[in-house]
Amino acid sequence: MTLSTKNILGTRELTKNDIQQILDTADSFKEISTRAIKKVPTLRGKTIINLFFEPSTRTRTSFEIAGKRLSADVINISGATSSAVKGENLIDTARNLEAMNPDILVVRHDCSGAVELLSQFVSSPIINAGDGSHEHPSQALLDLLTIRSHKGNLKGLSVAIVGDINHSRVVRSNIRAMQTMGMKVRVVGPPPLIPVEMKRLGVEVSYNLIETIKDVDVIMVLRVQLERQSQGLLSSLREYSNYFCLTSETLAQARDDVLIIHPGPVNRGIEISLDVMRSPRSLILNQVTNGVAVRMALFYLLLGENNANPN
Amino acid sequence: MSSTLLNSKDISRAVSRISHEILERNHGANNIALVGIRTRGAVLSKRLRERIKEIENVTAAHGVLDITLYRDDLAGGNRKPELKKTEIPFALEGKHIILCDDVLFTGRTIRAAIDALMDFGRPSSVQLAVLIDRGHRELPIRPDYVGKNIPAAKSKRVQVLLTEEDGEDGVVIQEPSN
Predict the structure, then answer these.
(1) Given pLDDT bands bounded at 50, 70 and 90, which one contains residue B159?
(2) Can you tell me the distance from the alpha carbon of A110 to that of A42, in angstroms, rounded to the nearest whole number?
(3) Global pTM value
(4) Least packed by Cβ within 10 Å: which of A149, A184, B5, B164?
(5) What residue segments make up the domains of chain B, in order of their start?
(6) Shortest CB distance from A40 goes to which of B69, B76, B85?
(7) How confident is the model at residue A304 (pLDDT cuts 50, 70, 90)?
(8) CA A158 – CA A176 distance, rounded (Å)
(9) For testing contact with chain A, the best of B39, B40, B65, B69 (most A CBs within 10 A)
């Protein structure tokens, strides 16, 4: 097994074979997190640096736990406590970290393209843990793993993505990965939050929630990114909720076996109602569990081991 | 060039004998668990379990180990062996574990398997059953149950074929291909 890429910058660079390998490997890793001793020695002596210039609970913790369950040493650096506040630029920070010989860098940054830029200046493998509104590949992969675990396969499934398409890196990563795996994607949300380029990606665009979710296999609800709403694209949260909140009433129009996912964190009552969030069709916590397995798979496949030994 | 050392009947007899030896040594099948190392060790462990059930009418606990994550030949490199699932659906405490593999060679796989096993708990004992012992150990490991000893030159390839994986039963020895 081998990935076609040295870095995980986005799902755009991943082939179907790559995605399949990552999901299969992640599937095997799930079991480790259910053991009494949740640790295997595979990445003993490897160093992983989590470099996060943007707040995160889930993703950072997930990468940290994934590294630790594989016995790697994980170092967390957050933007607020790094030399960035003293004015050091991103590339210098990364180069200095690299001078300490880490084996892998996991980077989150609020600028789109920042992680790819970094990858040109450092030689260790880099995983993009979210850059601006560009890509968040590990999230897309864990979404696919969650869907595949429940549906058996991915090919031919249809997905409706609901909400703030414009600011969402999760959407961009998911659209590419889902299309690579032969899934059909539609997006729905208020017109100002859906970029016109969506149609160019081969995605169906709609502005009516019920029409869109009626016959899909999966509904992905997005968080309304309150911190990115300074341009006045949304008139009010209340209006947004009236039209696009996934409630048990709207859900009644969807298929009985529809799966509901959400990348978190959830704004309860704004994009999804509490009862839907807690319904058995909602796989939100499942996604979080799968996130650890997917990140273990990424570390394993990017670092891991080589060649088979006899017998 | 290859020659067959054991045919399907030979393998079946070896499995029967090992089953009896396991039962004799452990005074029955009540406290034992068979754990196979993927891929062919797992097949072998299932056969032993079936045979033991025929003899004693007891279904022994059963598990499967993938030792990939415990191997000692880790390095950079980009090619990874495919990782499959490990399934140990019982508590190890108080059990005599019969670790099963097809070929015992350097002993490194068994070392990895013992490490993997210990991460699941503290068994009463771990015993090793192999279909073929071909020598050339690199670690202080010895089998408790052996189907057949085949002292083969280190350069030769000893291959166990099992119907469940390979479509037929047999043990063949091959000259190195180049």
Answers:
(1) very high
(2) 32
(3) 0.89
(4) B164
(5) 8-71+84-153
(6) B69
(7) low
(8) 14
(9) B69
Q: How far is Cα B90 from Cα B140, in angstroms, rounded to an integer?
A: 28
When CB atoms are compared, the residue of A35, A307, A310 closest to B119 is: A35
What is the percent of chain A with per-residue pLDDT over 70, rounded to a whole number? 97
Give CA–CA dist A160/B25, Å, rounded: 61
What fold characterizes domain B8-71+84-153? Rossmann fold (3.40.50)
| CATH dotted code for A11-134+290-302 | 3.40.50.1370
Name the CATH superfamily, with its identifier, for domain A137-288: Aspartate/ornithine carbamoyltransferase (3.40.50.1370)
Q: Which of A168, A220, A164 is nearest to A193 (CA)?
A: A164
Of the residues B72, B82, B83, B155, the best mutation for testing chain A's interface (the one with the most A CB atoms within 10 Å of its CB) is B83
Tens-digit pLDDT profile for residues A226-262: 877 777 788 888 999 999 999 999 999 999 999 999 9
Give the tokens for residue A296: 């273990």
Residue of B nearest to A26 (CA): B83
Q: Is residue A96 a contact partner of residue A44, using CB atoms and an 8 Å limit? A: no
Interchain pair A309, B73: CB under 8 A:
yes
What's the rounded Cα separation, in Å, for the pair A8 and A21? 14
Alpha-carbon dihedral sign for residues A215, A155, A246, A251: positive
How far apart are the C-alpha atoms of B175 and A291, rounded to whole Å? Answer: 46
Give the residue on A whose Cα is nearest the Cα of B157. Answer: A310
**What's the confidence (pLDDT) of residue B108?**
95
| A155 backbone dihedrals φ, ψ, rounded to 5° | -60, 130
Indicate yes or no: CB of B120 within 8 angstroms of CB of A301: no
Q: Which residues of B touch A305 (CB under 8 A)?
A: 68, 71, 73-75, 77, 80-81
